[in-house]
Design brief:
By secondary structure, the chain is of the alpha+beta class. The chain has 8 helices and 15 strands. The protein is elongated and about 65 Å long.
Amino acid sequence: MNSWFDVLNSFILQAQTSDLRTSFYPKEFQGLRTKVSFGMGAPARVPWIAFMTDEMEVSKGFYPVYLFYKDLNILILSYGVSETEEYGNTWPTDIISSSQTITQFLGHKVPRYGDSFVYKAYKIQTNSEKIVNYLSFDNNTLISEDSLNNDLNVILNFYKKIVEKDSEKLIPEISHGLFYLEKQLEDFIIHNWDKTELGNRYNLIVKDGELQSQQYRTDIGPIDILAIDKKTGNYIVIELKKNQTSDDTAGQLSRYMGWVKKHLGDSNVKGIIIAGQFDAKLDYAISMIPNTEVFIYEIDFRLKPTINSK
């Protein structure tokens, strides 16, 4: 892939196959992290390419993102907004007030990401020779490579200016040290699921090619991770102890277990707390919650000298 245009063409063509691999896509573009997804376990109905700062994740943040509604052959370059967890900041008010959501723009409900805002929309045509054409959504005229690149450059530069203004607000959060690492723990666990003890015992929930387990939606708030026992088929509510008391964590776990019992019909739901340390308060708190256990995580942080160090 020699240019971003080549990357985008490859993305469109691969999205129309069952190939879910993403390792050969660039991990960075114009100083921003890039992440590509065609689905997990099965092809997604809306594959995407997101551009983010280091502080944000697809599950929690705002960022420019290509969303390919392949059933409609429509590609939208969007002011993306996370579906799973709200971030402290978002797109400026003038963008939100002057832009249509994807649902509003298309005039009907879409499978995913309908609350993100439209920056540009393109109609997609492909032929048997694997040539991708990008057409204006308004008049079906062919859009040039230069125009596509310019559209992306404009939204990326705008985004970088926004996050630069917000950087002073982000620095204190990073300075919280362990709490910052704990916030990344959830993504680490998901991305390395099959390599953990959890992955040996439980399955993540995937529906229509999209991961459902992380920040699983309920009407009382999102569950950090909801999994399924490989042997019994029962649900597993997993909560991370993040900058809160043992009582708060245990109370939150019991509420979500109660929700699963009532709304998902699982009277044998199990609970797991993942914490940096196990103390007496946590021990007493979980002793009153049946089918609950605690996992302790360890962080291995090392400084390695360079060859020139003395």
